[in-house]
Structure formats: C-alpha cells, structure tokens
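Quarterly update from the structural biology core.
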Amino acid sequence: MQSINRTQLFRASCLSLLVTSLSFGIRAGILNKLGTDFQLDKEQLASITATAFWGFPLAVVIGGIIVDIIGMKRLLVLAFIFHLAGILLTIFATGYWTLFLSTLLIGLANGTVEAACNPLVTSLYTDNKTTKLNHFHLWFPGGIVIGTLVVLLFNSIGLSWQIQVGVMLIPTVIYGYLFSKLDFPVTERVASGVSTAGMYRALWNPLFIFMFICMFGTAITELFTGQWIDVLLKNVTQNAILILTLDTGVMVLGRAFAKPVLKLFSPQVLLLISTILAATGIFLLSTLTGNAVFFAAIIFGMGVCYFWPTMLGFVNTNLPKTGALGLNLMGGAGMFAVSLYTVIMGKYYDNIVKAANGNNTTAGPKVLQATLVIPLVLIVAFAGLVIYMRNKKPAETLNSAAH
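Predicted structure, tokenized:
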C-alpha cells in the first residue's frame, strides 16, 4: 500500500463519477434541441435515452466479472476511452444512429466507472465503506445539479448544445490523466485471498438475494421518480425542472453528512427511515400543488439520498466475500429495474392520457401514486431487515475472515 495515494485515487474516482452524472444532466437538458435539430420524434428520443440505461447495467455486470482479473486501472482506462468516444461522437452527431451509438458508449462508460470505482472505494477504505461510498456517490446528484445549471446558463447566453456537451471533455481528460499515472491496489477480495469460487458461493447467501431484490425497489423509487419529475409535474407547477434541482441538491447535502448520520443510525435503520421519508415524499408530490410541491421535493430528496450508496455499503460490509461482483450486480440490478419500469410506466402514462381524451393533468399524479406502492413494500422489507440484523454479530472484515 506504500505507493498507493488514497486521496488522489478517491478524487479521480469522484471526477469520473462527475462525468457520468454530467452526461445525465446535460443530455436531459438538450434532448428537445436534439429532437428539433435532427427531426427526431418522441419515440426515437426515448430509445436514444434508454440506451444509456441498458448500456450501464451491461457494463457494470461485465465489469464486475472481469475487474478482479484485469484490475481496476485497466477497467478505468476503458471507461475513459468510452467516455471520450461517446462525447466526441455526440458533438459531431449527424442523426439518429450516431446519437444512438454515442449514448450507448456513454452508458457503457458510466457503467464501467461504477464497476471499477465502487470496489476501489471499498478497497481503499475497508474500515469506513458505507460513509466513503456516500461521499463518492454525492457526485452523482452533484453532477446533475451542475449539468442542469450549465444547460440553463449556456442556453441563456446562446451557446450551442455541442459546446454544452464539450464541457464534459474537461473532467474526462483530467480523470483519464490522473488514473493513468496513479498506482492501484488490488480489490479487497483478491488482497484477502478469498477464491473466485468463494465469491460466487457468497452470492447465493439469502441476505444477498434479499438485498438484490430490494435494490430494484430503491433504485426505481430514486431514479425513476427523479428522471420523470419534469414530465410528471409539468401541470402541477411551472418550475418542474427546479424541483429536480432542489431534490438533487438535498441529496448532495445528505451524502456529504453521511458520517455523522451513520454514527447515529446503523445502515439498516437508515434504509428504513429513508424508505418512510421517500414514501411520504412521493405521496406529497402526487397530492400537493403550487409551491407546496417544493416542500414535498425536500422530503423526497431526504428519503432517497442514502439509498444507492447505503445499499452497496451494507452488502459489502455484511457480505464482504461477494466482493466487486456483489457490488456491481447490485448496481446493475438497480439500473436494469429502472429501465424496465420506465417503459411500463411510459405506456401507463399514455393510456391515462388517451382515456382522458388528451387531458393529462391527472396522469403524472396517478403514475406517482402507482409508484408509491414500491416504497410502501420496502418499509415492511427493511423493518424485517432491522429485526433480523439485531440478532446477528457484526460481519468480520475480509482480512480477519481470511486469517
């Protein structure tokens, strides 16, 4: 560990995740402009957007399988190449297929970043995994805030969408340079001598299977609602995009203060409290109107802010033998569930609008109320988890388990 610069590696990881989230924020902001410039209909735009969501789980799962074999550094070089190619191809896009391919490359890059950086963070901070995963993952909502502000600012001064996309090249080149010159540790599982067969066996632990299924619900609650807030609440408030900025801003703050929060609550208790707040937030978002919606967004943001990193941290802390693959299967499951649920709810939304003869004022709240079922089920699941974990000894670290 002598030549491993923990701080520099962590900062470079945060920059690579910033590129991932900027791609979400900036693409969301320029989507309508792309539709106009390239004469794309809503269905074509939806299929372009969806490629990022299935490119991500594909890369995360494959990355999780190969990261221990090829090492985290090579995986991050691959992420850098995908990001660079995806961004340049977007800037010089000529129509539907170049946009489709560029979005797929960015989705693959985003998934590859998580496939390498989640195990990197847990390997660098073996004694503090959940807190550091929260600090790392604050750059996801952080980047969405920065991305939407970049779009608003550049639009107001009349700069083209190509320049907005080009902004992503700056952090991409910096993280690529930093990772190329830094030394990497091996993953925690490899360092502690747990075999590949031992890792695959650990994935069949009933606790892992339970958390894997719960990840579908936490990811849908957070990412589907966040991505769709603009569409769902267009008729409820004039400033639907500001709700997304407020919600993601709350998430940045929450994750920044993960350390004191995790001193007060165990990860499983935090997940239960988060689910109660998220369910309350979705209920309020579907019923309140006018400026009261902003209060609902704050409650919702407080609820979902700890979901993703705490789910990963819980699994890696309590089931350390699942290793990098366990972390990345969780991330892949989350994104895959969001992509499927988005398609189902898109059809549900259209059906409500058709049934109401094009009057879609109730469609958004109805979709939110249907989604509310998911965190309500999770409240029961996490209450059970809290009771189950009371009777369990704290998990050994991998190093102590190996000796």
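The two ends are 19 Å apart (CA to CA).
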